[in-house]
Amino acid sequence: MLMSKADFFLQLRTRLRGLPPEEQENILGVYEDLFRQAEAGGKSEEEIIRSLGFIPVPVEQSPRAHNHRPYPPAGGGLRPFAAACALLLFNLIFALAPFVAIASLLFSFSLVAVLFAFSLVWVIIGTGIPPTLEVLLLEVFATMTLSGIGVLLGAAMWKLNIAFWSLVKRYIALNLRLVRGD
């Protein structure tokens, strides 16, 4: 199928229809320069078109021939609003209560870990030095045990808090993707 320079640029404009106008003009300008340089080199229009690797497609068979919007619209409309309302209702009914419960548990266990870890300091400040050696040993043993438990619990709570908040971030990102329609 022989194709002329005018047919080539007509099909090229048809294929570039979804791009911004300044980008279309840049691409058309590049192809016009290529045509001028090749014609100055003595090539025919058919040779130039073949060397560019352009496969001619009849305009009526082109998938974009009847589609004036090759890309989806830029957003807006009722769909994102309806998705946001549905997600808000779902999150209020099903996700808010477990979120608050888990966040409260994590906060309370973290607070217990801090209190246990510093229990030795508070016992010494609060009670002073006990009158007998047995009471002193009991207090030191009990507070050291509580401090050790507090440190271990604190390390575990640190990891659990990081995991929980990363899950919350992923859930929020999922909700945003659902609203946007991605």
Give descriptors for this structure.
mainly alpha; 182 residues; 74% helix; 2 domains
Describe what you observe in this structure.
This protein is mainly alpha-helical and 182 residues long. It has two domains: 5-61, no CATH class; 78-180. 74% of the residues lie in helices and 0% in strands. It has helices at 5-15, 21-40, 45-51, 78-117, 119-127, 133-180. Helix 4 runs antiparallel to helix 6 (133-180). The protein is elongated. It starts with a helix and ends with a helix. The model has no long low-confidence stretch (mean pLDDT 84).
Radius of gyration: 36 Å
Contiguous runs where pLDDT drops below 50 for at least 5 residues: none
Specify the oligomeric state. single chain
- Shape annotation: elongated
Mean of the pLDDT scores?
Answer: 84
Tell me about the biggest sheet?
none
Distance between the termini: 41 Å
Q: How much helicity do the residues have?
A: over 70%
The helix count comes to 6
Strand percent estimate? under 5%
The counted number of beta strands is 0
